[in-house]
Amino acid sequence: MNNSDLLKELRIDRKAPPETPSRRGLWIALASIGAAVLLGVAGWALFGRDSALEVKTAPVTTIGNGGSSASVLDATGYVVARRMATVSAKITGKVREVMIEEGQKVEAGQVMATLDPIDADAERSLATAQEGAASSQVESVRAQLSEAEANASRLSQLVAQQLVSKAQYDEAVAARDSLRAQLITSQRNAKVAGNRLHIAELGVDNTIVRAPFAGVVTAKAAQPGEIVSPLATGGFTRTGIGTIVDMDSLEIEVDVSEAYIGRVQSKMPVEAVLNAYPDWRIPAEVIAIIPTADRAKATVKVRIALKSRDPRIVPDMGVRVSFLEQGKPVAEQAAPRTQVPVAALRKDGEQDIVFALREDKAERRAVRLGPAMGENRQVLAGVSAGEQVIVEAPPTLKDGDTVRVAESK
Q1: Which residues form the CusB-like beta-barrel domain (predicted)?
Q2: In 45-84, which ranges are continuous DSSP H helix?
Q3: Can you give the pLDDT at residue 54?
Q4: 73-82+248-332 has which fold?
Q5: What is the distance in angstroms between the CA of the first residue and the CA of the last residue of the chain?
């Protein structure tokens, strides 16, 4: 074969159809694979997904951790004082001196303030003078009566001897009886004057404001020169000198919902935690359940006594309380306890069980139960804190079933 023949072999024949069968086959293969994948996804969505049971779960929790106590009910309230008084003068007057400051301790009867006593002193001086005049009147009448009685006695002897007339004697007796009546009147006037003097002395004493009981001053309401009055007259008139709180009368008041008041009983042990000191747990006890409800809030007020006195506890502090189980020492209730919702518990014959969620499978767990705690139940063994247990599932649920957690609405 010469060179010209070789060149003819290399020439491209443009009339021949393009070789496309292999490319067409590639596209067909890719389409088949895609269809298979789509069919697989659809099949899983229709059959595999629907085969998983829809359930709801809840966490396993602990109570009493970190030294807190197991409680049958928790509530919030405030520290209040049973003995608290805003001390005021009994009369209206101008403050002369204030002898208290906030935070100061006072004893019963201690002077807190004094008012200007000018008017009261004037009233007392006048009453003293009146009482003296009444006493002098009594002595004058008594002297006159003594003379009249002696005169009547002499005339009675003379009239018997017919040395004087009967009319003179009768006149002397009438004068004596009149003086006796005047003496009684003057004595009564003297007593009235004495009582008036006592009232005037009380008026002077009312200018001195004293503490009604021992406590701590929490507010100073007046300053020297201000007018104070026991009645709220408005304007710039003060109604009190200061406020005293008996720190030994501090207690806790909480509002408990009507739905849970049945869990609270008198003398029930309580553990209180002040918002200001969250790590300090104060032992307490229920004093009384006030036998009336708040219609607006649907709550019942409960009074709680503090068993520990401490300067850190002051009125109006916010506090959280836990009502503890009766009949058990607080130390026994302080250990951490695991609990699950009552809805998670099931019966398998005589055995109590729960279904725990492990990935997407339901795992059967035999549990040992403790006492009920409201809507929860203590679990002594079988589950651990932090795990998820199934609370709502079809009754046919069994160990190893595939589940999916329902989305919360």
Answers
A1: 252-325
A2: none
A3: 80
A4: Elongation Factor Tu (Ef-tu); domain 3 (2.40.30)
A5: 87
